[in-house]
Design the sequence.
């Protein structure tokens, strides 16, 4: 209970500072943007390709309409032009320029608009929200996806009593390939569930991101910790029920990184950190070799084949062959591939469905933008991983005080980045839609605000203090 004096000389108590209605609405808008981006496939299944494109376009125009006046007024702070993620923006620029030599100009222009829209929204989010607000916005978006996924699965199983096709279309007579279903009605029969995103692998990765986000907020002693724990249990249940081999490997990699980061935080000398690095790298290499040698029985436990469900034979071989035709600058940007375009229609099929990406982000970049694109993407991810790691393990310090406590929130960028990198070996989603949004968002935020809880005024004070410091 708040205590205050009634002495006539004392100033009357004042209510704590509250967020303005405008800022609350801004945060709600960002949550909606994140939801539409991460659950883009749900919008696609609900509204179709045209409807999903219009939805993303409307949100991008709204972002520009909100962001431009804020930039003109330097709100909420001056835009950090020099801190932009230039390697990621260079990749975006190369993707647009590739229309000049593209073998599929229509898909290049169409998918570049999608890439640009995601990039603009990511830059906007970084500019208007603090680190704490971004993590809370991610948490809210994941809660909506998980909650609606559970409701949709329950509705399909208890009311519809059968699988659901996209756009709520009627299920035709006879058997059709389960890959066509939006929801397969597997909630109570032990099969893989797909949620509102309509894809078990995608729901698994989102669930893993949600577990990480809820975990750092729980460790940071956010409000409603019991509710966070319940949401974490739901995300863990979805991760288990999706039975995604890729997500399980990503989760294992995230656990390793988390353990090493926590050990690094406890190290007090450079020698101790060096020993941790040596042991961690050596153990990781041994583990990777052991998993590779035992890949066949391990994949068999998950119901997968040793060729990663046909990726190496049916997909990667063809992608490498086409990438070899234009190895330097590639064949032209297209992420994702447009299945209706003649260049991709029936080129590679899975379950009689045209595949829309290479199931490996590096092969996809090589196919589209060649070796030049690979270099830009490697620099973008490499710089992000470097900054994210030291953001997690270095104690926050901007003056002579060297005993500040670590924030659990600083673990999130490195865990997210590792998940994206590991997922990129079997999927191409880390270079498009929400994957690319996370790359741009985290890269820009780490460069512009390298300390959690430090605002614009604190950074200006820090800069002035360094200039006045006597050697």
Sequence:
């Amino acid at each position: 209970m708040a205590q205050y004096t009634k002495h006539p000389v004392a100033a009357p108590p004042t209510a704590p500072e509250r967020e303005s209605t405008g800022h609350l609405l801004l945060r709600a808008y960002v949550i909606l943007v994140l939801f539409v981006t991460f659950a883009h496939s749900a919008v696609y299944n609900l509204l179709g390709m045209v409807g999903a494109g219009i939805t993303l376009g409307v949100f991008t125009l709204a972002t520009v309409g909100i962001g431009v006046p804020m930039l003109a007024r330097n709100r909420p702070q001056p835009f950090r032009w020099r801190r932009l993620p230039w390697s990621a923006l260079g990749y975006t620029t190369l993707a647009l320029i590739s229309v000049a030599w593209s073998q599929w100009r229509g898909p290049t222009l169409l998918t570049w608009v999608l890439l640009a829209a995601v990039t603009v929204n990511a830059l906007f989010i970084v500019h208007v929200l603090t680190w704490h607000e971004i993590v809370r916005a991610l948490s809210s978006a994941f809660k909506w996806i998980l909650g609606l996924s559970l409701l949709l699965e329950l509705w399909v199983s208890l009311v519809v009593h059968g699988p659901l096709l996209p756009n709520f279309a009627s299920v035709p007579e006879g058997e059709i390939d389960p890959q066509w279903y939006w929801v397969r009605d597997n909630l109570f029969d032990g099969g893989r569930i797909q949620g509102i995103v309509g894809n078990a692998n995608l729901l698994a990765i989102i669930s893993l991101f949600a577990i990480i986000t809820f975990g750092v907020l729980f460790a940071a002693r956010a409000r409603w910790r019991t509710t966070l724990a319940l949401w974490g249990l739901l995300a863990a249940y979805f991760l288990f029920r999706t039975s995604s081999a890729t997500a399980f490997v990503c989760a294992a990699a995230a656990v390793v990184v988390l353990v090493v980061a926590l050990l690094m935080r406890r190290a007090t000398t450079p020698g101790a950190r060096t020993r941790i690095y040596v042991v961690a790298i050596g153990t990781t290499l041994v583990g990777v070799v052991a998993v590779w040698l035992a890949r066949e029985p391990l994949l068999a436990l998950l119901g997968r084949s040793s060729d990663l469900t046909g990726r190496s034979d049916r997909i990667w071989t063809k992608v490498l062959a086409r990438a070899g035709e234009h190895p330097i600058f590639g064949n032209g940007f297209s992420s994702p591939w447009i299945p209706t375009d003649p260049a991709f229609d029936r080129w590679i099929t899975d379950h009689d469905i045209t595949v829309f990406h290479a199931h490996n982000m590096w092969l996809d970049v090589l196919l589209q933008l060649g070796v030049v694109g690979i270099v830009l993407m490697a620099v973008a991810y490499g710089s992000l991983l470097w900054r994210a790691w030291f953001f997690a393990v270095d104690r926050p310090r901007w003056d002579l005080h060297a005993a500040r406590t670590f924030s659990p929130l600083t673990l999130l960028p490195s865990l997210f980045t590792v998940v994206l990198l590991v997922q990129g070996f079997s999927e191409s989603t880390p270079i498009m839609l929400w994957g690319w949004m996370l790359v741009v968002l985290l890269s820009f935020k780490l460069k512009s605000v390298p300390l959690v809880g430090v605002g614009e005024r604190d950074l200006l004070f820090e800069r002035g203090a360094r200039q006045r410091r006597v050697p």
